[in-house]
Predict the 3D structure of the following.
Amino acid sequence: MKKVHLVLGSGGARGMAHIGVIDVLEETGHEIISITGCSMGAVVGGMYAAGYHAAYKEWMLRLTKTLLFKILDFTLTRQGFLKGERLFNLLKKVTGQQQIEDLHIPFVAVATDMVQNKEVYYRSGDMYKALRASIAIPGVFTPVLENGQFLVDGGVLNPLPLNLVQKNKDEFIIAVNVNGASSPTMTTLEVKQEVTALWKWLNPLMQKENKPKDLLPISEYSLRELLLSSYNMTQDRLASYLLKTYPPDILIEIPRNSCSTFEFYKARYMIDLGRNACTRALEHNQQPDGKPEVD
């Protein structure tokens, strides 16, 4: 039995690949002894730590575009157009209230406090409050306001929180970066296409705004499009820095063009992608003595 500290990165719907990674780790006899997650990585990790991995996976596999639209609770505010509360209320009906300190394994969710410009680490307290703060992509989800803090997605400062993990002898760290280099075998997903797809969903609620057209020059990007594009590029750069500064024992990478931020109805594809990427990484790092290769 190999003991693993699992670090799950942010990346919207690409984070569904984390589910497939966890499946393979369990099937191959690895013991996950801690999970540190950011944004979607925090959601998948939290559900696993609470003991509801299988139920959450099945729920995700049932998601369709229509069902996803019904789950999203839109709001017209200056700080975001999604509240995200309906989603977590649905999950809470399945799992009940969850306190982080009572989970089956140690768990940390990462958010960002915009007031103090610092990372916030949830190691105790209401798990769903922590997850809601961790997923709050600026300009998309409304922020979480509490105790003088203005909390948004942890990916703003730390999309792959490797700096929070320490290992002992005979333990190793596996990181899953879902903002990996684009794959030439996959259809390139430009930010413009990504935002346009989301805009089609929002169009009935945003009649007063102009829907963006495909393939406009970048000089004609709207504020919302520029925000999302900037956020994605910042996550890529920060993840690269974290990997160089805190190299894991095993790195599993999911191409950034495998799925757009909002395509949660592609669960089966992304879970399979996570399974395959994890299998390849484990095979590549396996030594004759059964220990991972460490660079």
The longest strand covers residues 171-180. The radius of gyration is 18 Å.
